[in-house]
Amino acid sequence: MTAIIGLNARQILDSRGTPTIEVEVYTENGISGRAAVPSGASTGKHEAVELRDGDKKFFRGNSVINVCERLVQVVEPELLDLSVFEQKMIDDLLIDLDGTENKSNLGANAILGVSLAVARAAAEEAGLPLYKYLGGVGANTLPVPMMNILNGGKHADNKLDFQEFMIMPVGADTFTDALNIASDVFFSLKDLLKLKGKSTNVGDEGGFAPELDTHEEAIEMVISAIEKAGYKPGLDVFIALDPATTEMYVPEKGIYEFKKSHQKDKNSDQMVDFWMEWINNYPILSLEDALAEDDWDGWKKLTAKVNGKIQLVGDDLFVTNSKRLKKGIDVKAANSILIKVNQIGTLSETIETIQLATANNYTSVISHRSGETEDTFIADLVVAMNTGQIKTGSLSRTDRIAKYNQLLRIEEELGLEGKYPGRNFKFIK
Prior knowledge:
The chain is 38% helix and 16% strand. The protein is an alpha/beta fold. Strand 14 (363-367), helix 12 and strand 15 (389-391) form a beta-alpha-beta unit. The N and C termini lie far apart (49 Å).
């Protein structure tokens, strides 16, 4: 047994300059594990609660200094002398100490910091890379990047209601090759935007945020960038979308409002028809949050109509919560889940949700948040769990690049053992 002898939590800043929590766990052998917690802008109401201090004099109410202090006061005494290798027991203890369904007492951000820091310390104690400690000898799958190259919605100040237009370089043979292809497309899009006199400023996750008139213009720009880079849309590179429609949905009216683009509002059935038209007309391989977080009927209709043709990812729908995922499985809503560790609050619950998805033939996409740090935990997690897909932003902003760089290191370390899904991606026919 390697006992925990101390805990520290501090306030740091995320990629938007907003405070977040960093936690360190110390062991009796002089080992420490550190983890920084991400934060989302476009958040679902079913996510575990992120606590803030609320004092408007400090970081506009977003300070977490008091949250950190309370975390140490409440949690550290309970962790002392526990084995750092007892991840599940420690995570269960954190959940019990909080005592709420949505982790609103201590805060999911605070709890998660401890959970991830414990895992890091344990990996150091074991003398293993984090991905090997979490996943064992079978952890060898490098992910297909869902690279966000064009932003709208809450991630950009433009007229696009849809939040993310991404590319998936499935034609690559290795992860390194995938980054090369994605880089070609990213900079081709930049050239095209310049040619059209559009801004090449970037949004929260590093994708370009130009002033475009319609969503059709946006997706066609991405297709043009793929072609300009010398690749074939729908063969070498596919498109993935995250419109984040929960942000557009008005429950009391039962409609999806296109406030930014001023396109015609739609009800749930009309949104389903809209997406089917896009799926049939464009080389889309993955569609996330196509309908709102509680539009279960719409999700069921879309899933039935898609019939496995593409990946339908539930983010706000499932919020990395096994209970909501189980409902989705039972009613046949979506066929994939987005995994964000801070949506649920502990590593053990995250892994349990991934395992539930896998057992029911749902794919899992490991994901960053719009407010990120230099922490690369999710890069190790995606290899550990062999999920084969990661969303971690574009080819700009160091907080996003840090995850890609860690995956390059892991790929080098795995050598011939490493696998890249490429054209074997589940939904490619």
